[in-house]
Design brief:
855 residues, alpha+beta, 37 strands, globular
């Protein structure tokens, strides 16, 4: 194991690709501040809401930044100190403004050369300048450890600056961080009133606590911030800058630091946002290096519900805020275990990066984990995880852990199983009515969970599949016992009069609201295959629950529906939508029409029709992920994916007409939402000309599962080339808002290429039957597996890095099975080596007690 500060790197961005980089630093459900590509701190989203572009600034000019002062130790009169803000050069578009540049810290001298390296959550900025006698590396992160949501949910940013002396003589160096006290104002709302900064020295930390005596204690903007260093020795602090205008405040700070590298206190001068500064002064030997760590923490407990109604129920709170009294308490609790948290984070990232997967697959999976840390996600005080669909610039976008969007993401279940379970519990215990209708947006507090009162066909059925997936990953019979009654109700709801499958023939013909934000009428592949996946999941769960009659019902409907879709919707190239207006629109069951679709169901517009939809096989994808097998003819699946590649992919979009939003432009390559090679309806579903990464990933990963590897990888590569740091932020894939949850389906790319599947119920681990160095995680444990071919057998080294794994069977799909004479229990740090010999005949990896056999 390398040193903790020897960080793995997945992608490096040169100076021409830094402008849009903003790596979120913060824990799951805590909010974040982002590390910019040039080393600045931007998007201060720590106060319970998005705040894109917000950088706090005090009335007298104080703003967040870090600076370095360098001077030869043997001082002579001509040896003036060199002072630089620890940031790279500004982009050309930042030069202009009505009064000159308005970019934060525009007037401070900076380093001429900069690059950025990342392997999320690890971000590194490299700064150098021929005129500066030192070079600087900034390492920034927040702990991220699979299976440990608490360690991954800390409200802080760790910033470690390593300064290297490029000269042959000793230097005196100071590093200084500054932060205005903006408690009370979140970038959109609130006022700073009675804010104060106080110096603290405790537990090896020296710094400043920033809080308020005047902000209302129930406000979403009330709380505290803290800036501190773990450095020993010459540490100085300011609790205020000089209260003076016309740039005098900044000038005073500059002169103070420049004089001797230490800070002198200034008296507070009635500033609403007093700026705090912390400086560390040290000697640096010739050619030597030294690291200084700064910690930035926050604590804002008063999160409001999605749509506040102006009453006491609006305040729902934050889980993280209940773990510490204030921001300084966060630092004193974390500092003693910071090295261990870093080691665990680096161990995870290195194991992931060392897997022999294509770089674009690793980047898509790992970088999209940042969404879990953004304001898209939060945890209520009971520990439950909730999510918007994404984030607008100043508010969450599309409330309620929307099931038809969150169906796609796979990161939570495979990395934080306990958090995924809380989402299933909300869906089946709170959002589900007694008649089986699941509100696809859950209101908060949970006493209002069913207030939205509308059902989405894909959302509800996907939740059934996820219930099966999460039960399998956990292996917990209590989870099945808890969820199964709701699962049965949710499926039975499909068969109500006027429902999705009102004639109970295994085909969804009814009014089907879905993730395209419209209602489809008539059988279609997107909803129909989701239905088949839910029936298969229901069948398997019913067997284990001892409900054989319901299992038989699900099986029969699955068989009929599967054959019908293959026979009637597959056109030889892909599956089409057979539009069937309802005979009597008034007979559509209550709760199925949301109102965003066709105004006239008797002659509906906004239909898919004969289009080739990019994610018509999303149900099949989740079936593969969950180990449920093929839902329709495998040959049809493969031909459909080939058709999506043939008809929907564009090498460039300069000649492409798009009637709605643009998430790709110009010469960028992408998969369109739909194409119409066989004729187009006059007014198809609204997004058909768009490009959205979550849907592209779903199709691409489907291709990987079907052996269309070159096409699948190119589709993923197309996405990541669009999010290249120059045009877009690599850590913010947008759809309806920033940090869109659907894009976390990218984690399934790892599952497809490694063949990973874990059944905690059967204690069976499955990988593809080929040599590989794999990373695996089941949401509760994680580790590596190395498979090598030797003398006609496969030699396996299975390692559990964290967590515990009880194993009864190890399968290499298409190759062979290893069954220990008795179950193994592998604990953290343990490795088992064994040999798998070839097995003749059909692979034992085929599962599903009565899965349909398709030639």
């Amino acid at each position: 194991m390398n040193r903790a500060d020897d960080w793995p790197v997945l992608r490096t961005y040169d100076q021409d690709h830094l402008a849009r980089i903003a790596l979120p630093l913060g824990g799951i459900g805590t909010g974040t501040v982002s590390l910019g590509g040039r080393g600045d701190l931007r998007h201060w989203e720590v106060m319970n809401r998005p705040a894109k572009g917000y950088v706090p600034q005090s009335r007298f000019g104080g703003r967040p930044f870090f600076a370095v002062r360098v001077q030869p130790s043997a001082q002579v009169p001509t040896d003036d100190p060199v002072v630089r803000v620890l940031e790279g050069p500004l982009e050309l578009f930042e030069y202009e403004g009505a009064s000159g540049s308005t970019t934060t810290n525009h007037g401070l001298p900076r380093f001429r050369r900069c690059s950025f390296s990342a392997a999320y959550p690890l971000g590194q900025v490299f700064l150098s300048d021929p005129a500066v006698p030192v070079r600087v590396r900034l390492q920034a992160f927040n702990p991220l450890v699979p299976g440990d949501a608490e360690a991954s949910g800390l409200p802080l940013a760790v910033l470690r600056y390593t300064v290297t002396n490029r000269t042959a003589r000793p230097l005196t160096v100071s590093l200084c961080g500054s932060l205005p006290n903006f408690v009370g104002h979140d970038g959109s709302e609130g006022r700073c009133v009675g804010n104060r900064n106080r110096t603290r020295t405790e537990g090896g930390l020296t710094g400043v606590l920033l809080d308020s005596t005047g902000v209302e204690r129930t406000a979403a903007q009330w709380g505290s911030l803290a800036l501190a260093t773990t450095a020993r020795g010459q540490v100085s602090c300011r609790t205020a800058w000089l209260a003076a205008g016309w740039g005098t405040s900044l000038l005073d700070w500059w002169d103070d630091l420049s004089a001797d590298g230490s800070l002198d206190e200034r008296e507070p001068g009635g500033e609403e946002q007093p700026t705090a500064s912390v400086a560390v002064r040290f000697r640096l030997a010739p050619r030597g290096s030294r690291s200084v760590t700064f910690l930035l923490a926050w604590h804002f407990p008063n999160r409001l519900t999605w749509n506040p109604k102006g009453n006491s129920e609006d305040l729902i709170g934050n889980w993280y805020a209940g773990q510490h009294a204030d921001a300084w308490a966060v630092l004193t609790a974390v500092a003693p275990r910071l090295r261990k948290l870093e080691e665990r984070t680096v161990r995870f990232v290195r194991a992931f990066c060392d897997a022999d997967l294509p770089a674009e697959v690793k980047e898509a999976a790992l970088f999209n984990l940042s969404t879990l840390r953004s304001q898209t996600c939060f945890r209520t005080p009971d520990g439950r995880l909730f999510g918007w669909e994404g984030c607008s610039d100043r508010s969450g976008c599309c409330m309620g852990s929307c099931t038809h969007v969150w169906n796609y993401e796979q990161s939570t279940a495979f990395l934080f199983g306990d958090l995924a379970r809380t989402m299933r519990e909300v869906e089946f215990h709170h959002a589900l009515r007694d008649d089986g209708m699941m509100s696809f947006r859950v209101d908060l507090p949970l006493s209002r969970a069913q207030a939205f009162g509308k059902a989405a066909a894909d959302g509800q059925l996907g939740c059934v599949v996820k219930a099966y997936r999460d039960w399998q990953l956990s292996g917990d019979p209590a989870l099945l016992a808890s969820l199964y009654p709701g699962v049965r109700k949710a499926l039975e709801f499909c068969w109500i009069p006027g429902g999705w499958d009102g004639d109970s023939d295994g085909v969804m013909e009814g009014c089907q609201h879905n993730t395209m934000d419209v209602e489809y009428y008539g059988p279609n592949p997107q909803m129909g295959i989701w239905y088949l996946a839910a029936l298969r999941a229901g069948e398997e769960m019913a067997h284990h629950a001892g409900d054989e009659a319901f299992a038989d019902t699900c099986r029969a409907l699955f068989e009929r529906g599967s054959h019908w879709l293959d026979e009637h919707l597959f056109n030889g190239e892909y599956y089409e939508h057979e539009v069937r207006p309802p005979a009597d629109p008034a007979a559509v069951a209550e709760g199925l029409r949301v109102g965003a679709g066709a105004a006239n169901p008797s002659d509906p517009d906004y239909q898919l029709g004969p289009g080739c939809l990019v994610d018509q096989l999303v149900g099949q994808l989740l079936s593969h992920v969950s180990g449920l097998g093929y839902l329709v003819d495998p040959g049809h699946v493969r031909r459909t994916l080939a058709s999506i590649w043939r008809y929907n992919r564009r090498d460039g979009l300069s000649g492409h007409f798009n009637c709605l939003r643009s998430f790709a432009l110009g010469e960028e390559a992408a998969l369109l939402m739909a194409s119409y090679p066989k004729g187009r309806p006059a007014n198809p579903f609204p997004y058909f000309t768009e490009v959205m990464t979550g849907f592209e990933y779903a199709a691409a990963v489907g291709m990987l599962y079907e052996g269309q590897v070159e096409e699948g990888l190119q589709a993923i590569r197309d996405i990541r080339e669009r999010y290249d740091g120059r045009k877009r932020n690599p850590f913010d894939e947008a759809e309806c808002g920033h940090h869109y949850a659907r894009a976390m389906v990218a984690w399934a790319g790892l599952l497809a290429l490694t063949g990973f599947h874990w059944s905690g119920v059967e204690k069976r681990l499955t990988l593809a039957g080929r040599p590989m160095a794999a990373f695996w995680s089941n949401g509760y444990a994680w580790g590596t597996c190395r498979v090598a071919s030797r003398r006609g057998t496969m030699e396996v080294a299975l390692t559990v890095v964290e967590g515990e794994l009880e194993l009864a069977e190890f399968v290499l799909t298409g190759y062979g099975v290893h069954r220990p004479s008795r179950r193994w229990k592998l604990t953290a740090g343990r490795t088992r080596t064994f040999t798998v010999t070839p097995t003749s005949g059909r692979s034992a990896a085929v599962r599903g007690r009565r899965r349909r056999t398709v030639p």
